[in-house]
C-alpha cells in the first residue's frame, strides 16, 4: 500500500525509518493531538509527503479595544463576533478608538478603502464601521462593527477632615477622595490634601479646587502624578469650553496639552455640580516634560503675582517663572538661575526686534510651528487673553528652543470678552490691541510678520479645518450626551448656564462654524 498525504497539518507519530517501522505494528496519524488514522506498517510500501499552500480565508477571528492602545480605557474591551456582526461596549469618553483584530497575515483589511493596521489605526466609531477583509486570491468579506456606548459622568467625592469647608487658596485641608468611575473609568480611593485655586474664578460662588495626592497615582486613566485640578466652569453654559480647546490642542499636536474629563463633584456629601478634571500645569515627567533644573516653564500673566518675575525689555511682557521652583534653591543659586532665565528670554526678544528680522537666527530660539498651532487654537476659540496676557505659557528644555504651551483657561473665550456673553460676536480678529496692557499683541504679531510663517499658518489652518474641526464637532456631540443628565442639576444649584442645553450646544457649534469661516476670510488677504 502506498500512502499519500498532502495536508500539512498531518503529523506522523513514528520515525520514518525502515528499522523503526519494522519495530512497530502500526503507524498513527494525529491531528490536534488526536489519532485520526491508523495503518498496519506491514502493508505500507512507502510514504510520500507533499506540502501544499494553505489558502487564507477572509475572516476576522478576534476583535478588541486594548487598554495599551487607547489611553482612556482602564481595561481591555473584547468585541463579540456573531457571523459578520461585531459588537463592543465602550465608554463615551471619545469617538476615536484603536481596534486590535486578528486575521491571516496575508489578508488586507480596509475601511472605506483605507488600509487598517491592527493596534495602530484610529477610527471614529460614533457610527457603525464596516471592515473589509480581502484575501490574496480576491475573496472578501465585510464585518460591521457597532458600539454600545456607556454614557454619563464619573463622580468625585471629597470629604474633608471634620467636614471643614474649603475656604482657602493657600492652606491645604486633609481629605478623603473617592472616584466612582461608573463603569467607564477605574474606581479610585485615597487620602489627599485639597485647597482652592484660580484667580478670578476663585471669586465666583462655584469654587475650583486643587488636589494633591500623597504619592503619584493615575486617576480616571490619566498618567501618574500627584497634583490634579477641578475646574468649576462657572461661566461656561456648555460645561465643555475648556474641554473643546484642550481636545483641539491634542488634535493639532501641541506638546503637553492637558486632558479634560467632565465629572460630577460632591464635597462633604453636598453635590456641587459638573466640573472638569484635568492635570496641573507643571514641570514633571508626565506633564511638561523638560529638565527639572535647567528646563523652564514661563507664564505671561498680567496678574504678575509669582515670586520670580520680570518685565521683558522690548515687549514689556509680564513674565513669571513657574518652574523651576527657584524658592527651593540656595540664595546664591536663585539669582544665578533667575538671571540665566532672563538672559535667554531677552535673547529671543532681541532676535525678534533685530533690523535683520526675519532673515536672522530667531527660528533657532523659538519653535515657530508651535507658535502657529497655539495661535490657531486661540483663534478658533477667540481667546483674546494672549493680548493682555493671562495664562499664556511657554516652555524650553535645557538646550532647546522655546515652545508655546500648554494652552490654558478658555472661560473668557468664544466671544465672551467685551460682551460678557458666550457665542455673541465671532468676527473679532485675534491679535487686536485695545489698551496699553495688551503687550502680548505686539509679540505675536511680530512673529507673524514673517511671510513664511503666514504661509505655514494658512496650510496648517486648512488641515485643521478639514480634518480636526469635524472630529471636534463629533466630540461636542459625545460630551453633550454624557453631560445632559447632570446639566439641569448643576443649573438648579447655581442658576448659571441655560434651561435649554441642546439649543445651547447647537449655538456653540454654529458659532464655531461662523468663526472658522471668518478666519478663512481673514487669512485670504495675507
Structure report:
- This protein is of the alpha+beta class and 526 residues long.
- It has four domains: 2-49, no CATH class; 62-150, Immunoglobulin-like (Sandwich), CATH 2.60.40.2340; 155-279, no CATH class; 296-523, no CATH class.
- Helix content is 24%, strand content 28%.
- The chain contains eight helices and 28 strands.
- The chain has helices at residues 18-22, 241-252, 331-353, 368-380, 439-448, 451-483, 487-494, 501-523, and strands at residues 2-5, 11-12, 26-31, 34-40, 46-49, 62-65, 77-78, 80-82, 85-91, 96-98, 100-102, 108-111, 114-115, 122-124, 129-134, 140-150, 155-160, 173-180, 188-196, 209-217, 225-231, 261-267, 270-279, 296-300, 309-311, 318-323, 392-396, 402-404.
- The strands form seven sheets. Strands 17-18-19-20-21-23-22 form a seven-stranded mixed beta barrel. Strands 8-9-16-15-12-13 form a six-stranded mixed beta sheet, with no helix packed on it. Strands 25-26-24-27-28 form a five-stranded antiparallel beta sheet.
- Helix 2 (241-252) runs antiparallel to helix 4 and helix 6 (451-483) runs antiparallel to helix 8 (501-523).
- The protein is globular.
- The chain starts with a strand and ends with a helix.
- The model is unreliable at 1-23 (pLDDT under 50).
